[in-house]
């Protein structure tokens, strides 16, 4: 029998959602301070209003159950699943009030894209957007890349009554960097801030040398660093990374994107001096071979394309686009128009496949993940061995992932299940694109970009896209960020809870007679 939510369960869920909403008030608080410092008074009023809305709604929801019980696994999944869309609905308010979005739905699309670190956008005239509005977009990348629950856990906002492990796992993470969940979340936060600051300095200096004014160079450096490490893809300029015309900036961003797409649980292996564990890890080996193979294939498919001036330029751009796609960041060194007109169909498909696979598990990247691809390959090897060996033989397949492990049936089953769910979601989005009149390759590419949180656009997503398709893409981004299980569990539990059980249904029938 499916578990059902009681009235007290709903009150408990509302309480912890309220905690997250109150916590989220810090997000619009950052652009509010930015607006004050830069004397952008109109944006300041919008973000002050949003802070007030967060505090009011969040406090009211917390009061629904002042002393909540400890969260169980089902409640934790509900809190996590709902938080991503509820916070996006609130975050869309100040952006919708600006003059850069045609509708509230466009602003909501951008907020879901920002929080899920997809990077697709519906903004108009972004080159003239206020600094405060741009700051908010990248704050959403930071909060979403870290994970809404990870941020709350690291600050201890759920208190001692919360089920830390259930909350942590419900956001698509299962491996602990250190034994304690709260310590793990704080380690991730410290590492993210450290990498972003280390990336900011050289990018800032490069932009200064190229002639950008200091304040603008600092903000662009900060925003690009956040977007790269959180594998988000938002850019302060409409032409993405192409705006900077800098091989140095592109190289720095590639390094940061790669750092953001590596499983955070592997970093302590390097810190402890166990580099052999790091380089023998299934994820690292799978990812390295995959990136090298796909870069070579992309170069081969673009060899005859009249897009680049020489071989070094083509190699640099191919490497950048592969890293951007694999990390599911979404930075582009070619425009959407060039993707659909100048790129060969083979190159176009390569980028879609790379985005579909994604980066490392337990990192900020999306997609199916290197770890699952490696597990599926190991499962294939196990199946072949079982067929070749005598029936009496016991086939054992090992792999290295933070220590040597034995391939278990439940691990293979989980990898295949998530793989299948991603493929189904890619197909659904593709069919939706076809229904709205787009060609098959473009519809497939855009669907993969949304569900994998990849963000590289072939030109469908943007201001003026059909409303129905926009809603489907929002759902794809939401589902992809939570890796389906949390969202599916939430939907099932809500449907079961609002559907009368057999006894209630029988009583209603008897009463009607």
TrEMBL record:
Give the organism's phylogenetic lineage.
Bacteria, Bacillati, Actinomycetota, Coriobacteriia, Eggerthellales
The similarity comment for this entry is: Belongs to the TrkH potassium transport family.
Q: Name one Pfam family in it.
A: TrkH
Keywords, alphabetical? Cell membrane, Ion transport, Membrane, Transmembrane, Transmembrane helix, Transport
PANTHER family xref list: TRK SYSTEM POTASSIUM UPTAKE PROTEIN TRKG-RELATED (PTHR32024)
The protein here is known as TrkH family potassium uptake protein
Any one GO BP annotation for this protein: metal ion transport
Q: Which organism is it from?
A: Candidatus Aveggerthella stercoripullorum
Give the GO molecular function terms: monoatomic cation transmembrane transporter activity
């Amino acid at each position: 029998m499916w578990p059902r939510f009681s009235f007290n369960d709903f009150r408990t869920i509302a309480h912890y959602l309220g905690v997250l909403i109150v916590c989220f008030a810090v997000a619009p608080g950052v652009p509010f301070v930015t607006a004050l410092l830069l004397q952008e008074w109109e944006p300041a009023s919008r973000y002050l209003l949003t802070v007030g809305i967060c505090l009011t709604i969040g406090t009211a929801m917390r009061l629904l159950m002042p002393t909540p019980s400890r969260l169980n696994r089902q409640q934790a999944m509900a809190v996590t699943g709902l938080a991503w869309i509820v916070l996006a609905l609130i975050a869309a308010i100040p952006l919708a009030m600006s003059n850069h979005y045609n509708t509230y739905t466009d602003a909501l699309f951008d907020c879901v894209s920002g929080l899920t670190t997809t990077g697709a956008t519906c903004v108009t005239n972004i080159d003239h957007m206020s600094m405060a509005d741009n700051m908010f977009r990248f704050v959403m990348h930071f909060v979403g890349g870290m994970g809404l629950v990870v941020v709350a856990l690291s600050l201890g906002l759920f208190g001692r009554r919360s089920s830390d492990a259930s909350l942590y796992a419900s956001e698509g993470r299962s491996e602990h960097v250190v034994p304690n969940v709260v310590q793990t979340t704080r380690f991730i936060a410290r590492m993210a801030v450290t990498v972003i600051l280390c990336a900011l300095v050289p990018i800032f200096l490069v932009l200064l040398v190229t002639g950008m004014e200091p304040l603008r160079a600092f903000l662009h450096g900060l925003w690009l660093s956040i977007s790269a490490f959180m594998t988000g893809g938002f850019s302060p300029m409409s032409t993405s990374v192409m705006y900077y015309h800098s091989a140095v900036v592109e190289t720095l961003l590639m390094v940061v994107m790669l750092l953001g797409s590596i499983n955070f649980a592997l970093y302590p292996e390097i810190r402890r001096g166990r580099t052999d564990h790091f380089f023998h890890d299934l994820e690292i080996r799978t990812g390295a071979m995959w990136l090298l193979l796909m870069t070579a294939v992309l170069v081969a498919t673009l060899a005859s394309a009249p897009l680049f001036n020489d071989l070094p330029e083509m190699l640099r751009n191919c490497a950048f686009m592969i890293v951007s796609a694999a990390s599911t960041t979404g930075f582009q060194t070619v425009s959407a128009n060039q993707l659909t007109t100048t790129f060969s169909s083979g190159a176009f498909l390569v980028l879609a496949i790379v985005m579909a696979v994604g980066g490392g598990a337990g990192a900020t990247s999306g997609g199916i993940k290197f770890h699952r691809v490696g597990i599926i390959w190991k499962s294939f090897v196990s199946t072949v061995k079982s067929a070749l060996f005598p029936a009496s033989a016991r086939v054992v397949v090992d792999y290295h992932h933070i220590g040597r492990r034995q391939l278990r049936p439940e691990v293979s089953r989980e990898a295949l299940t998530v793989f299948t769910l991603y493929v189904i979601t890619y197909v659904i989005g593709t069919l939706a694109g076809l229904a709205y009149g787009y060609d098959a390759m473009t519809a497939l590419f855009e669907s993969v970009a949304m569900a994998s949180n990849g963000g590289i656009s072939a030109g469908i997503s943007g201001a003026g896209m059909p409303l129905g398709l926009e809603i489907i893409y929002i759902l794809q981004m939401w589902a992809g960020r939570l890796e389906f299980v949390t969202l599916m569990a939430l939907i099932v539990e809500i449907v079961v809870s609002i559907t009368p059980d057999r006894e209630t249904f029988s009583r209603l029938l008897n009463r009607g007679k």
